[in-house]
Amino acid sequence: xxxxxxxxxxxxxxxxxxxxxxxxxxxxxxxxxxxxxxxxxxxxxxxxxxxxxxxxxxxxxxxxxxxxxxxxxxxxxxxxxxxxxxxxxxxxxxxxxxxxxxxxxxxxxxxxxxxxxxxxxxxxxxxxxxxxxxxxxxxxxxxxxxxxxxxxxxxxxxxxxxxxxxxxxxxxxxxxxxxxxxxxxxxxxxxxxxxxxxxxxxxxxxxxxxxxxxxxxxxxxxxxxxxxxxxxxxxxxxxxxxxxxxxxxxxxxxxxxxxxxxxxxxxxxxxxxxxxxxxxxxxxxxxxxxxxxxxxxxxxxxxxxxxxxxxxxxxxxxxxxxxxxxxxxxxxxxxxxxxxxxxxxxxxx
Length: 349
Fold this sequence. Notes:
349 residues; two-stranded antiparallel sheet; 4 strands
């Protein structure tokens, strides 16, 4: 199984946590799962679950959700002793969702390497991704926090996961070429808010609840996180049409008719008839005889029309988020957030 070079600073906590799970399941001295009483070598567990999970988790990612949890924790007075598992919760939920999404979309690449299902097969990849959901939830019970706080975190995580799956249902079922132009912006916004937005909102909420923030501040931080998630998805979609290095991702989104932000921005740049004509060209990409040139040509038109509107929309969304966060986080955490967002903007090209 091939793998990308690990980003040691960012992936070590997740890989170390994975090792701890393996040691509990199959202690090295006996090689057995004590609750089952049978001998089972480490190698079989690694082949079945821990190897595929480690393959994915060692790949370098932006890890911003965990970082946001840390910033909120410290920014509302949580102190220096951050529970080590706290930032892992949303990172594992995100990692699991990426693995499953790649199977559902039949994506070829993820984080600089083949998508996990291309390496281990779809059944094992799906099992690995969904196992990460339950692993993330189990980490909540290990947090050194009062039982009532752990219970609240569990409820909020389950509610967020439910909304994320609702957003994924929209993403999988909507082909933007078949949506009436007047409904395109709402379709894109609903899909984004119920996927990227919700999970980023959970990352902020987890930090606030664990640090003991009051209800009003926690809810405000969760709303801020959700809006930030929308802004970062806008940034991602912008990079997919603007950055040459991300051309393949932009073309994949285009061919699959995904509800991405360039289509919403297009609706603010041209009239409905022009949108409908481009949607007709999009639908034609699925017809026999459609070529790479046809996709490139449509991408160029979409980019030229949507890019000016998109750049302004992304900048406005992120600036509003920073403004809202200034009243919710202490100055040091707010400055760190601003620096993190600058880093992310640069990374998306």
